[in-house]
């Protein structure tokens, strides 16, 4: 059964920022729709002062109750986080399941988590969120009733027993440690192989996975709902000239991702912070693309990735008229305009990646047989670290950039 949701978008008046109440309401609608729920109705509340008991004023809560009944909604979702007590009080007042922003996002995450680490992290975040909310009696019962806010890898384990939940949290932390250790070992191996890594980052739904698929023609899941990708996905890709690179897909960003969730989803973002180049994929057809762009930069800063070079990829140009694209090109002179779906502009992107990585140096280590010894001359002298003759040939170790590597291998093969 599809639940009908009543959305309450709250804007605290003293907090001024670039996201207008309408932008926030629009984002809430997108998030709620991506959980597969119907929207019964919505209201935007401009809040002058936080009421500790209900978050909103008592009168507002009563107003919402009326609207909820009129629209026959089964769930109320707030665009802000509520304290456990506020959530319980509102729920008792309105009489239906009440969720806040963190729970909404957790629900979406739970829905899309695929790999082992993503699932463990979602369950951990859910349990940690639930623990301080177990005091009241009403709240958990409604939470266990199924539907939005109760889904997730640990769905069956959400029992009314704090001790067991604590134990489960400990166990999850242990398991995560092990998964992390494995991931770290993998990354080490990758770095020692010195394959340059290119991470696709961007706001949720920007088209990162579609672009990765277009580039590698692999079949990663891409979909119209938000947050389709929750686990690090990497693909080997060969640039023209056969330079191997690693393309990393990452989790979609969101404005003001609750902090404890940033922690929980670092797994994929960490990958981005170790990349050599970031492709920032932006859905240029979206009405608030500019604000989304800033939101992404803010998160990149938070995860320590702000010094990595970025190529801005302006996606979904197939949805815009040519005149509009021409104007945007003036604003983004360095940007690559493309359509991941139609395949426009892909070649330009590949060239840009190549250009950016051209100064990337890696080890060249090999044995040159006697008839190939002259190839050493192709390498700059100061980049040769070791040369020693062996069985009539030469053992060679050098640091080379992409162009030199390419030229060297061409001659070696030819
Ligand atoms: N019209 C159009 N739609 C696109 C284009 N690229 C992607 N899309 C659509 O945008 C939606 C989101 O694409 P995804 O590739 O899943 O987006 P994502 O950035 O990976 O999203 P998350 O993993 O949720 O962060 C899908 O419905 C795609 O079909 C494009 O160039 N043009
Ligand atoms: Mg994706």
Low-confidence stretches: 136-142, 155-159
Helix and strand composition category = alpha/beta
Overall morphology: elongated
Portion in strands: 15-25%
The largest β sheet comes out as:
6 strands, mixed
How would you explain this protein's 3D organization?
The structure is a single chain. This protein is α/β, with parallel strands linked by helices and 414 residues long. The chain has three domains: 1-184, GTPase HflX, N-terminal domain (Rossmann fold), CATH 3.40.50; 194-357, P-loop containing nucleotide triphosphate hydrolases (Rossmann fold); 362-413, Alpha-Beta Plaits (2-Layer Sandwich). It is built from 14 helices and 13 strands. The strands form three sheets. A six-stranded mixed sheet has the order 6-7-5-8-9-10, with helices on both faces. A four-stranded parallel sheet has the order 2-1-3-4, sandwiched between helices. A three-stranded antiparallel sheet has the order 11-13-12. Strand 3, helix 3 (84-94) and strand 4 form a beta-alpha-beta unit. The N and C termini lie far apart (65 Å). It binds guanosine-5'-triphosphate and magnesium ion. Magnesium ion binds at residues 208-209, 222, 228-229, 249.
List the defining traits of the structure above.
20% strand; four-stranded parallel beta sheet; binds guanosine-5'-triphosphate; elongated; 14 helices; alpha/beta; Rossmann fold; Alpha-Beta Plaits; 414 residues; binds magnesium ion
């Amino acid at each position: 059964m599809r639940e009908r949701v009543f959305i309450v978008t709250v804007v605290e008046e003293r907090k001024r920022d670039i996201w207008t109440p309408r932008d926030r309401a629009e984002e809430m609608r997108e998030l709620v729709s991506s959980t597969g729920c119907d929207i019964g109705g919505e209201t935007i509340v401009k809040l002058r002062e936080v009421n500790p008991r209900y978050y909103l004023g008592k009168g507002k809560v009563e107003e919402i109750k009326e609207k909820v009944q009129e629209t026959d909604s089964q769930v109320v979702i707030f665009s802000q986080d509520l304290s456990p007590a506020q959530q319980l009080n509102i729920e008792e007042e309105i009489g239906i399941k009440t969720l806040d922003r963190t729970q909404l996002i957790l629900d979406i995450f739970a829905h899309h988590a695929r790999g082992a680490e993503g699932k463990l992290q979602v369950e951990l975040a859910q349990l940690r969120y639930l623990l301080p909310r177990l005091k009241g009696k009403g709240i958990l019962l409604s939470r266990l009733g199924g539907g939005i806010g109760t889904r997730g890898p640990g769905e069956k384990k959400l029992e009314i027993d704090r001790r067991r939940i604590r134990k489960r949290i400990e166990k999850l932390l242990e398991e995560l440690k092990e998964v992390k250790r494995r991931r770290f070992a993998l990354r080490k191996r990758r770095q020692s192989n010195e394959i340059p890594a290119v991470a696709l980052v961007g706001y949720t739904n920007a088209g990162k996975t579609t672009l990765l698929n277009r580039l590698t023609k692999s079949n990663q899941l891409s979909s119209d709902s938000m947050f389709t990708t929750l686990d690090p996905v990497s693909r080997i890709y060969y640039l023209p000239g056969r330079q191997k690179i690693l393309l990393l897909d990452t989790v979609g960003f969101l404005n003001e991702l609750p902090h404890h969730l940033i922690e929980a989803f670092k797994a994929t973002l960490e990958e981005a912070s170790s990349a050599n180049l970031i492709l920032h994929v932006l859905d240029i057809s979206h009405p608030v693309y500019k604000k989304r762009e800033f939101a992404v930069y803010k998160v990149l800063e938070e995860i320590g990735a702000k010094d990595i070079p970025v190529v801005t990829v302006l996606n979904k140009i197939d949805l815009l008229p040519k005149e509009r694209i021409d104007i945007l090109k003036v604003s983004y002179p360095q940007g690559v305009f493309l359509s991941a779906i139609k395949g426009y502009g892909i070649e330009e992107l590949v060239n840009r990646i190549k250009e950016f990585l051209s100064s990337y140096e890696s080890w060249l280590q090999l044995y040159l047989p006697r008839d190939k010894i002259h190839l050493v001359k192709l390498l700059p002298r100061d980049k040769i670290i070791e040369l020693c003759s062996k069985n009539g040939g030469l053992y060679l170790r050098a640091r080379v950039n992409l162009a030199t590597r390419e030229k060297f291998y061409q001659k070696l093969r030819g």
